[in-house]
Write a structure and sequence with these properties.
alpha/beta; glycerate kinase, domain 1; Rossmann fold; 6-stranded parallel beta sheet; 17 helices; globular; 451 residues; 2 domains
């Protein structure tokens, strides 16, 4: 998190402390331990109690960027009772020193799925189909699970899913829209994991990376009833004019589903979910609230505006810049030194050939709008530590960013037009590099107006 812009600010320590507090509050090991307790023969998971004397075998499955530290917490709590399991996480997120016991860890591709993800999902499906009625399955689900838990439905192939995912990502589709399509092309999403393990009881632990924390959307809802339909998925592809671009097999499956030739995903009220309990263990709001608390303790007038921010990154940047000006010129909605905190997830419609991520693009657009504005620092980052296909979590913009860039011969507008924020901020030393954080609860945006 050591960037030139933050280092130059006299509020540097306060800013970094807020970022660290946000990430610490959603540490996967911490939040799992807050929601899972062992008291003698009883295992408490959220609001449910399980008598371990009545459990024949305890299994652990799941996927996501935070899956491994979540398993580490479970191993600490009930290690000797775990018979085995498998989780899938993103490359670089396993951690060489993390103890997961007999639970196999498979690293795979994200955001576009790959062969490792398919292999891990197949291994998981095979395990779940062997569980018994007296078994208990603990399922750890976190952001990234949609891409990582890939098990093509019907005659679909990995290539079909890769192509479809790539098209939707570049179109600017929201995560909700993307996951509606994914659920209808998968055996494991949209309640599929619950169906595979339906003979056993299942207790799910979910770390949310979706605005509003809808359980049926997080990781494409592998444990949840799916209120969406094949017609919804078809409509999304039609909206983004992708029906003629997706693979023929994808189009054929969705058409068959719309015609009633393929059974839809399990819906709310299905008895399949009677044996499934799901606990939300962490979210974007938890991280944002922790940042605000730390900011207040650091002497800033910190204020949480919303954790429901969505939209095109460069449009959100304009709103953020307008709020920064309100702080600087009118001390509203709070007086300086101030920090407004946002949470959510923006999107980018990719039209250029550059390198970047949604938070870097937001910061670049904000830098243009903030040009010349004194004593402002804007920080945009992904809580998982990776923003788009880059090694950066996000970037920092100030009122001096454009002047500094111009002095280096950088054309900010050209970089923005080419979706090329990464090399722009890299040249300035203003990328935020945290490495994989082990957690994933959407994005955070901080608008600092300093006295």
């Amino acid at each position: 998190m050591e960037t030139k812009s933050i280092a130059e600010s006299r509020y540097r320590d306060a800013i970094i402390a807020m970022l660290q507090a946000a990430l610490a509050a959603v540490d996967p090991e911490l939040v799992v331990c807050q929601h899972v307790k062992r008291e003698g023969r009883w295992l408490l998971v959220g609001d449910e109690k399980y008598n371990l004397d009545e459990v024949e075998k305890l299994w652990v499955v799941g996927g996501g960027k935070a899956a491994v530290p979540m398993v580490v917490a479970l191993w600490d709590i009930v290690g000797e009772r775990i018979a085995g399991g498998v989780v899938v996480t993103k490359y670089g997120h396993a951690g060489p020193d993390l103890a997961t016991g007999p639970v196999a860890v498979i690293e795979a591709g994200h955001p576009v799925p790959d062969e490792n993800g398919v292999a891990g999902a197949r291994q998981m499906a095979g395990l779940l189909q062997r569980v018994g009625e007296r078994d208990l399955v603990l399922a750890v689900i976190s952001g990234g699970g949609s891409a990582l838990l890939t098990l093509p439905a019907g005659d679909l192939t990995l290539d079909d899913l890769q192509a479809t995912t790539g098209l939707l990502l570049r179109s600017g589709a929201t995560i909700v829209e993307l996951n509606k399509v994914r659920k209808h092309l998968s055996r494991i999403k949209g309640g599929g994991l619950a169906r595979l393990g339906s003979r056993a009881r299942i207790a799910g632990l979910v770390l949310s990376d979706v605005v509003g924390d809808p359980l049926d959307v997080i990781a494409s809802g592998p444990l949840s009833a799916d209120p969406t339909t094949f017609a919804d998925a078809w409509g999304i592809l039609a909206h983004y004019a992708l029906l003629d671009q997706v693979p023929a097999g994808v189009r054929a499956r969705l058409q068959a589903g719309c015609d009633g030739e393929v059974a839809d995903t399990p819906k709310p009220g299905d008895a399949l979910f009677d044996g499934v309990q799901t606990t939300l263990v962490g979210s974007n709001r938890l991280a944002a609230s922790a940042a605000v608390k730390e900011g207040l303790g650091q002497g800033l007038n910190a204020f949480l505006l919303s954790t429901y921010v969505e939209g095109e990154a460069r449009e959100v940047a304009r709103v953020a810049s307008a709020l920064a000006k309100e702080l600087v010129f009118h001390d509203q909605p709070v007086a300086r030194p101030a920090c407004l905190v946002w949470g959510g997830e923006t999107t980018v419609t990719v039209r250029g050939q550059g390198k970047g991520g949604r938070n870097q693009e937001l910061a670049l657009a904000a830098a243009l709008a903030l040009d010349g504005l004194p004593e402002v620092v804007l920080v945009a980052l992904g809580t998982d530590g990776t923003d788009g296909p880059t090694d950066a979590a996000g970037a920092v913009a100030t009122g001096e960013t454009i002047a500094r860039a111009t002095a280096l011969g950088l054309d900010a507008r050209a970089h923005l037009a080419n979706n090329d924020a990464y090399p722009f901020f890299d040249s300035l030393g203003d990328l935020i590099r945290t490495g994989p954080t082990g957690t994933n609860v959407n994005d955070l945006l901080f608008i600092f107006a300093l006295a």
